Amino acid sequence: MATRAMRTARLAVPGDAAAIARIYNQGIEDRVATFETEPRTAAQIAAQLTDKGDRFPTVVVERDGAVVAWATAGPYRSRPAYAGVAEHSVYVDRAARGSGAGRLALEALFREYEARGFWKLVSRIFPENTRSLVLHERAGFRVVGTYQRHGKLANEWRDCVIVEKLLGDAAR
Questions:
Q1: How far is it, in rounded angstroms, from Cα 161 to Cα 43?
Q2: Residue 16: CATH number of its domain
Q3: Which of 5, 41, 83, 105 could form a disulfide with 69 if both were Cys (CB 3.0 to 4.6 A apart)?
């Protein structure tokens, strides 16, 4: 993939499910991006896109017509006080990492979620996932702290760095 290739960000549609699943499965295989261990199918991703509806959209980044990155979010907590906080994820195809596709996906996510009334995005990142930590820092996230032994992956405790980004009026 050429570095100067045309990149665009847009809302995901069910037809993007196979590409989203492929990229997500790379993250699962790499074992530095998620606690999940079971690969996802296009059908599972398509169902998630439908279930999330307009409130929690997914965005994709295309390079020359091919999806190379995606980002999404979901509810943080069910309490009304947290209605404007969403927990997000971002994944980039191995061949597109370091090309700016992840940053473009996050920036599109910011716009979409701010337009829906969200004031904060949060996430948890494995400390070993330095590329993701750098991406989030460059996109304006701040590190809040670290959850120690937050969960097990391959029967080993994993810590998680907590990040947040304020949106809209909360960011001013």
A1: 31
A2: 3.40.630.30
A3: 105
